[in-house]
Design goal:
Layout lengths: L1 H7 L5 E3 L20 H12 L2 E3 L1 H12 L1 H4 L14 H16 L18 H12 L1
Parallel strand pairs: 1-2
Length: 132
């Protein structure tokens, strides 16, 4: 419904899986939400043949790489498993840019800065570790 309206207006629809919660499993990983919102967003993107950015997987993987002790009170507020800090928002935005770049056929690439460093996530993870 919304995807068709967006296409009719000449815009470029992009469906993005929501970020994961700040919750960790026994293996020290952030679980994916493929069985709910993330999976549903991907199904709609496939149905309408539009770009899908799996921000849930991208951010869960980045969080897992950073480790729970480096995520708490850096990416998410210490007692909040849903809302990110400003640093978490920057990480999310960087991962969305990464997702757009992974789709070189997308016209959205024409609107991204050329100077965006491909190693931004690695630099961010390193900086977050230094904060703690």
């Amino acid at each position: 419904m919304y995807v068709n309206e967006i296409k009719e207006k000449g815009a470029i629809p992009v469906l993005i899986a929501p970020i994961p919660r700040n919750s960790w499993n026994e293996e020290g990983r952030v679980p994916y939400n493929d069985a709910s919102y993330g999976g549903w967003a991907q199904q709609i993107a496939e149905k309408h043949s539009v770009m899908f950015i799996n921000l849930n997987h991208k951010m869960a993987d980045a969080m897992t790489e950073m480790g729970e002790e480096n995520v708490r009170d850096v990416i998410f507020w210490e007692r909040d498993h849903t809302h990110t800090t400003a640093e978490g928002a920057v990480l999310s935005a960087s991962l969305v840019v990464e997702g757009i770049r992974e789709n070189p056929e997308s016209a959205l690439n024409n609107y991204l800065l050329e100077a965006y460093p491909s190693q931004a996530i690695d630099l961010f993870v390193e900086a977050a570790r230094e904060v703690k």
